[in-house]
């Protein structure tokens, strides 16, 4: 496999040809490349996969707390052909997959005066990491749900809102306020070979080399995110591991690899200050256990809470993986 999966690659001759093509033609070429089957693996190469199936993080300070749970599960493209996702079936050059997975990312933020919940799902290709569809819902009377369907020429968005208190208590498929938009992007000009979302970066650090560059779509805008390894730190950990039918408490100090996120906006819609990972913004970093490749800390800041670190409290191994230490 080629390194730097998030970078556009090619020699000077390809660059010359690219500049001769129109923007639409270049996007169609990108669509053909991205919709093809993944390249066959070398004889000694294993499929890329995360070592974990479920992760739960928690962090708190004197005025509030954050709890986030991530869960990977098998999926099918038929999942995307049900209401309300099917309303985005006409997304131009929509991405497909022969090996889709689903990531649930649910979070709750509590402070002295408020509480908010976010329920998110993302379908993506297990081999490339390309995101297919993302849904992010904030329940409640003033809640909303954003659904994005990704394609080679841009992303189609459906925003749902409840019309009244009665609708707010129903599933989002019953919310009657609807708004459709399309956000175009140029994969070639942006230097993107694929598109992902913030929560999937925790999948990538477990299954891809740490020093990688990704094109990340968040809150209707595109960013380039570089993951930089900053070496090892010895830090305390305390979490439970579910692995091969057994439980183990991992506690004490461990050498962890720090991975910093460098966020660069792509386009006028993007603002680095708005970029979020697990409800956190600002100076973002991930602490990774280099032996098990599990993310054990995510740090950043949150409005109303200040700087905060989410620490792993519970982890379940992927099938066939032994995470016991």
Q: Give the uncertain stretches in residue-range form.
A: 1-48
Portion of residues in helices? 10-25%
Query: Could you tell me the number of beta strands?
Result: 15
Please give the order of strands in the largest beta sheet: 11-12-13-14-15
Characterization of the model:
The protein is mainly β. Helix content is 11%, strand content 49%. It is built from five helices and 15 strands. It has helices spanning 12-20, 23-35, 165-168, 187-190, 201-207, and strands spanning 52-61, 64-74, 100-111, 115-125, 131-138, 144-151, 154-161, 177-184, 195-196, 213-218, 221-243, 246-266, 281-289, 294-302, 306-317. The protein has a five-stranded mixed beta barrel with strand order 11-12-13-14-15. Residues 1-48 have low confidence and may be disordered.
Which descriptors would you attach to this protein?
disordered N terminus, 11% helix, mainly beta, 325 residues, globular, 5-stranded mixed β-barrel, 49% strand
